């Protein structure tokens, strides 16, 4: 086994991934198995580098001294030779001048080669006092451009990086393209290095209480769903009135399970239809981009047409209400079977396709969190499909079934105002998610979390059967509200939706195209990863404004149910707990990813979700 070359704590020069630039780093640890050094940059970023991508500081000093001494010595010797020539020999003098000119050009090329490597090392960690830039890349003040922005603008192609650095320091004439190409070709042979292959590491920090916590969640989540639905069926759904346990045979019916399978397959057919545009997701750890077909809104329209046909032929949609508990059990059983399939297939998945948060090596934890990041059957992406289709569209169908059940049970010619508000608010939320389907590709569910029991159960069971809790509650517990109260609740929901949508739009547009002229008035803090942290707009108000909008909308969905019982407000309580957990996870993830830039952002934006409170 080869011995390590650099010791822990040693300060060396490490190559930045995807570029030809080296920066001062400190070795923190060494992996004997993968033969990778974990190094820490001055901004707090930690990366795993191969030994071939690390250089000692002495080698850079040697190159710098060569670049600064070789050309002057040659120029001085040339001048001494020119003084000794006889004026009577002009032809020979001209020949020697031409030779010296070529030699001088060669020296200049070598100097450029060495200086373009050495300069960034010397100046990259001299940031200006104000690192906040506008979207168009112009500084906020009239001070000299911050040289630390070189890190942020690095490209994956070394040729382009070399070109930009040379132009930044005016080391060549920008009009002489032919000479530039020669310099670049020589540069390639001098510093070309193979790209760093990112090797997935084991998940060390476990969420949800680790192995014991995730094991308990496997039973707690289904039990919570059954408890909530049983409570809504009672005449007095108070917390002290615990519902009786239902008989096991009453929880299962083969016909109901068959209907659920048909529903899942119908949405799969709509997903596979060649309609809608195809877009690329964010780069994976391997640099590859997966393709996704954006047709969720079309699937919703087709589903509405199918439901309309069923109602036209007098299909009793309130069958969902009569067998609601059985549908929930069928969905839970299907999600469990799907989770088992996902984990078994993940055992054969390549290392680079595993989820960074679900690769702990513990069976229960990885089964719950999700071991594989993007499980696919051909071009059919299982996680992306379940994220928006069966559960989210099913939520709207369930709400409609509850509305029809309320009209039938209470002999109403029109639905109650409370039921109309709940259906309308949640329909707007679902339609917005499907209309902006492309935005889900930048969420942590897609980019970071694996597809296991947590997401499978959440997408197929929790979303359709818990998010529809208010409509299910109103069927057995009708609530009358006045028009002024309904108007006030509508304003509250619109306000929450405005925050939610505008904040998400700012974030998604920034991630897709930071140079968009529409965002020129916004500012961000640059980071060492090449991305920026917004400090104006909604993201300069609180760190997670989309979560704030979510909570306001959840409150508006519950208010039409009145205040007789706390059960309809379970969703609000759950949502606050969920978002606080996500916020804590996001804070930890961003601190590791962005280092000192995230600390500056937290100082600039002190409040997390609730302004002046939290």
Automatic annotation (TrEMBL):
<keyword id="KW-0153">Cholesterol metabolism</keyword>
<keyword id="KW-0443">Lipid metabolism</keyword>
<feature type="transmembrane region" description="Helical">
    <location>
        <begin position="521"/>
        <end position="542"/>
    </location>
</feature>
<dbReference type="InterPro" id="IPR001171">
    <property type="entry name" value="ERG24_DHCR-like"/>
</dbReference>
<feature type="compositionally biased region" description="Basic residues">
    <location>
        <begin position="76"/>
        <end position="97"/>
    </location>
</feature>
<keyword id="KW-0444">Lipid biosynthesis</keyword>
<feature type="transmembrane region" description="Helical">
    <location>
        <begin position="481"/>
        <end position="500"/>
    </location>
</feature>
<comment type="similarity">
    <text>Belongs to the ERG4/ERG24 family.</text>
</comment>
<keyword id="KW-0675">Receptor</keyword>
<feature type="region of interest" description="Disordered">
    <location>
        <begin position="53"/>
        <end position="112"/>
    </location>
</feature>
<dbReference type="GO" id="GO:0050613">
    <property type="term" value="F:Delta14-sterol reductase activity"/>
</dbReference>
<feature type="transmembrane region" description="Helical">
    <location>
        <begin position="325"/>
        <end position="344"/>
    </location>
</feature>
<keyword id="KW-0560">Oxidoreductase</keyword>
<feature type="transmembrane region" description="Helical">
    <location>
        <begin position="455"/>
        <end position="475"/>
    </location>
</feature>
<protein>
    <recommendedName>
        <fullName>Delta(14)-sterol reductase LBR</fullName>
        <ecNumber>1.3.1.70</ecNumber>
    </recommendedName>
</protein>
<feature type="transmembrane region" description="Helical">
    <location>
        <begin position="294"/>
        <end position="313"/>
    </location>
</feature>
<feature type="transmembrane region" description="Helical">
    <location>
        <begin position="250"/>
        <end position="273"/>
    </location>
</feature>
<dbReference type="GO" id="GO:0006695">
    <property type="term" value="P:cholesterol biosynthetic process"/>
</dbReference>
<dbReference type="Pfam" id="PF09465">
    <property type="entry name" value="LBR_tudor"/>
</dbReference>
<keyword id="KW-1207">Sterol metabolism</keyword>
<keyword id="KW-0238">DNA-binding</keyword>
<feature type="transmembrane region" description="Helical">
    <location>
        <begin position="562"/>
        <end position="581"/>
    </location>
</feature>
<keyword id="KW-0256">Endoplasmic reticulum</keyword>
<keyword id="KW-1133">Transmembrane helix</keyword>
<keyword id="KW-0472">Membrane</keyword>
<keyword id="KW-0963">Cytoplasm</keyword>
<dbReference type="InterPro" id="IPR002999">
    <property type="entry name" value="Tudor"/>
</dbReference>
<feature type="transmembrane region" description="Helical">
    <location>
        <begin position="212"/>
        <end position="230"/>
    </location>
</feature>
<dbReference type="GO" id="GO:0005789">
    <property type="term" value="C:endoplasmic reticulum membrane"/>
</dbReference>
<keyword id="KW-0756">Sterol biosynthesis</keyword>
<dbReference type="InterPro" id="IPR018083">
    <property type="entry name" value="Sterol_reductase_CS"/>
</dbReference>
<keyword id="KW-0812">Transmembrane</keyword>
<keyword id="KW-0752">Steroid biosynthesis</keyword>
<keyword id="KW-0152">Cholesterol biosynthesis</keyword>
<feature type="compositionally biased region" description="Low complexity">
    <location>
        <begin position="66"/>
        <end position="75"/>
    </location>
</feature>
<keyword id="KW-0539">Nucleus</keyword>
<feature type="domain" description="Tudor">
    <location>
        <begin position="4"/>
        <end position="62"/>
    </location>
</feature>
<keyword id="KW-0597">Phosphoprotein</keyword>
<dbReference type="GO" id="GO:0005637">
    <property type="term" value="C:nuclear inner membrane"/>
</dbReference>
<dbReference type="GO" id="GO:0003677">
    <property type="term" value="F:DNA binding"/>
</dbReference>
<feature type="compositionally biased region" description="Basic and acidic residues">
    <location>
        <begin position="101"/>
        <end position="112"/>
    </location>
</feature>
<comment type="pathway">
    <text>Steroid biosynthesis; cholesterol biosynthesis.</text>
</comment>
């Amino acid at each position: 086994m080869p011995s390590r070359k650099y010791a822990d704590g040693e300060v060396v020069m490490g190559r930045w991934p995807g570029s030809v630039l080296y920066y001062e780093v400190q070795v923190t640890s060494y992996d004997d198995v993968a033969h990778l050094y974990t190094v820490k940059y001055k901004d707090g970023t930690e990366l795993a580098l191969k030994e071939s991508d690390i250089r000692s500081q002495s080698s850079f000093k040697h190159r710098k001294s060569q670049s600064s001494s070789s050309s002057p010595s040659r120029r001085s010797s040339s001048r001494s030779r020119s003084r000794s020539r006889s004026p009577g020999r002009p032809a020979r003098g001209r020949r020697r001048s031409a030779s010296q000119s070529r030699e001088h050009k060669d020296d200049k090329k070598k100097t450029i080669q060495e200086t373009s490597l050495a300069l960034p090392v010397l100046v990259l960690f001299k940031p200006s006092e104000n690192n906040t830039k506008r979207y168009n890349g112009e500084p906020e003040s009239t001070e000299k451009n911050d040289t630390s922005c070189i890190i942020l603008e690095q490209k994956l192609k070394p040729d382009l990086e070399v070109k930009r650095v040379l132009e930044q320091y005016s080391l060549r004439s920008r009009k002489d393209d032919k000479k530039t190409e020669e310099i670049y070709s020589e540069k390639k042979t001098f510093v070309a290095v193979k790209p760093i292959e990112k090797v997935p590491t084991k998940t060390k920090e476990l969420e949800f209480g680790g192995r014991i916590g995730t094991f308990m969640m496997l039973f707690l989540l289904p039990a919570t769903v059954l408890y909530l639905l049983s409570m809504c069926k009672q005449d007095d759904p108070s917390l002290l009135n615990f519902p009786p346990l239902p008989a096991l045979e009453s929880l299962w019916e083969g016909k109901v399970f068959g209907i659920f399978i048909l529903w899942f397959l119908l949405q799969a057919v709509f997903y596979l239809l060649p309609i809608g545009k195809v877009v690329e997701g964010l780069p994976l750890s391997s640099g590859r981009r997966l393709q996704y077909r954006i047709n969720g809104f079309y699937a919703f329209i087709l589903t509405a047409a199918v439901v309309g046909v069923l109602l036209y032929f007098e299909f009793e949609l309130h069958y969902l209400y009569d067998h609601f508990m059985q549908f929930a059990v069928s969905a839970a059983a299907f999600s469990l079977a799907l989770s088992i399939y996902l984990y078994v297939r993940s055992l054969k998945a390549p290392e680079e396709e595993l989820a960074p948060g679900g690769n702990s090596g513990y069976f229960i934890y990885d089964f719950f969190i999700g071991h594989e990041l993007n499980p696919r059957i051909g071009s059919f992406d299982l996680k992306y499909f379940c994220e928006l289709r069966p559960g989210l569209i099913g939520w709207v169908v369930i709400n409609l079934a509850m509305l029809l059940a309320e009209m039938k049970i209470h002999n109403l010619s029109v639905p109650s105002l409370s039921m109309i508000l709940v259906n309308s608010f949640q329909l707007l939320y679902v339609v917005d998610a499907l209309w902006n389907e492309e935005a889900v590709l930048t969420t942590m569910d897609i980019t970071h979390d694996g597809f296991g029991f947590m997401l499978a159960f959440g997408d197929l069971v929790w979303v359709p059967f818990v998010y529809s809790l208010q409509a299910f509650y109103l069927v057995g517990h009708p609530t009358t509200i006045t028009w002024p109260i309904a108007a006030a609740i509508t304003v509250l929901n619109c306000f929450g939706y405005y925050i939610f949508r505008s904040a998400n739009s700012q974030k998604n547009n920034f991630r897709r195209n930071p140079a968009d002229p529409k965002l020129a008035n916004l500012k961000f803090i640059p980071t060492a990863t090449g991305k920026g942290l917004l400090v104006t707009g909604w993201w300069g108000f609180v760190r997670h404004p989309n979560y704030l909008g979510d909570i306001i909308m959840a409150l508006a969905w519950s208010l039409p149910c009145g205040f007789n019982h706390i059960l309809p407000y379970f969703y609000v309580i759950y949502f606050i707990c969920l978002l606080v957990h996500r916020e804590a996870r996001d804070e930890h993830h961003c601190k590791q990813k962005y280092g000192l830039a995230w600390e500056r952002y937290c100082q600039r934006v002190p409040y997390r979700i609730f302004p002046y409170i939290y």
